[in-house]
Amino acid sequence: MKNIYFFANQVYQYGHAKPIYDAAGGVFIVNKLNRAIRFKYYLRNTEKPSKGGFLKAPNLIIKPKDEVYDLEGIVISGSNTEIKHDKSKSKSIFIGHGAGDKKFGGSGNTLETYDYHFVSGAKHIHKQKDMDIHISENKLIKIGYPKFDDYVNNKIDKEKYLDYLGIKERNRKNILYAPTWRWGNGTLKKYGKKFIKELDKDFNLIIRPHFHDREKIIKLKLWAKYHGFKNVYFSNPAKIIKNNTMNDFAISDLMISDTSSIIYEYLITKKPIIIANNDYDQLHNMPDELSVLSIAKSYDGDKTDIRDLILQDLENEKLVDIYDEMLNNCFYFNDGKSTKRAVDFIRSIQSD
């Protein structure tokens, strides 16, 4: 049986393919030594001794410049990078990372070089069309969103994760703040301290920066401690196992974000979302039925009170149905079987 390989430019991007790896096995590909070290560090102790490699992390190989001409099997990529492979030996599948409104990084035409695409939903297709990317129907494999499966199938141990974060006052509502980074005009610098000040009295605030802003966690944590705020916690996005986004989703009651793709992933919870507005305008043109921005409340800094917005949403029982409709507009299936669909398709082409 031909092997399965997983490629990405950054560690956090592997999170989208990890459910497929867990179900089908395989080998991870990285393109630089420092990323290989980072991968091993963040995924250490996640494998059984008999299965895992160094540090009991998944096995990997280093392939400079994404050149994998010698590999036979299936190469699944989470990055918009051309996979340079021998098409007589291997097939390439693009799974992507994120279902948000920001446009694909890199060249859109690169996506046309893949043999197949795992498609998460109607929004995924609309993003391609909005960028004038042309991919034939037979290459678009509708699977849904594998990252959702553990959440849908109730496989997340909420109490264990609350313990891991160290959350003390469990009678409080948990507010997740998950902004994007510089690409997307992330709001962490603008609102991070402000939200801590305004929400610490009444809520537990969990701050999950973007992967590229993870170094800011230490400074913000020290600032909060110095000023006596005791109900703020941090989730490191580089720790794609321990701080998996679905873990944060499972224990939170509402999320604040901006232009991050996480606002669409959070739909699986059917819980309220508040959008911290910024001036980023490089977004896809989306119809209202595929846009969280059309249903979520907006936060405009000094013009609105974030605490009041949160309380309004937490008390509004009708929001569950509104967010459920948006979820099913944007993503296919949502039945906890997306990983199985992906693996079934991989099996079907492994002998080709």
In short:
The chain is α/β, with parallel strands linked by helices.
Explain this structure to me?
It is a single chain. This protein is α/β, with parallel strands linked by helices and 352 residues long. It has two domains: 3-145 and 334-349, CDP-glycerol glycerophosphotransferase, N-terminal domain (Rossmann fold, 3-Layer(aba) Sandwich); 152-330, CDP-glycerol glycerophosphotransferase, C-terminal domain (Rossmann fold, 3-Layer(aba) Sandwich), CATH 3.40.50.12580. 30% of the residues lie in helices and 14% in strands. It is built from twelve helices and 13 strands. It has helices at 18-24, 33-42, 122-130, 149-152, 158-165, 188-199, 216-226, 245-251, 262-265, 306-315, 319-330, 338-349, and strands spanning 3-7, 27-30, 60-62, 73-77, 90-94, 116-119, 140-142, 174-177, 204-207, 232-234, 254-257, 273-276, 297-299. The strands form two sheets. It has a seven-stranded parallel beta sheet, sandwiched between helices. It has a six-stranded parallel beta sheet with strand order 10-9-8-11-12-13, sandwiched between helices.
CATH topology label of the largest domain: Rossmann fold
Shape, principal axes of CA atoms: globular
* Radius of gyration, whole Å: 20 Å
Largest sheet: number of strands, sense, barrel closure: 7 strands, parallel
CATH top level of the largest domain is Alpha Beta
Low-confidence stretches: none
CATH superfamily of the largest domain: CDP-glycerol glycerophosphotransferase, C-terminal domain
Helix content: 25-40%
The residue-averaged pLDDT reads 93
How far apart lie the N and C ends?
11 Å
Number of strands: 13
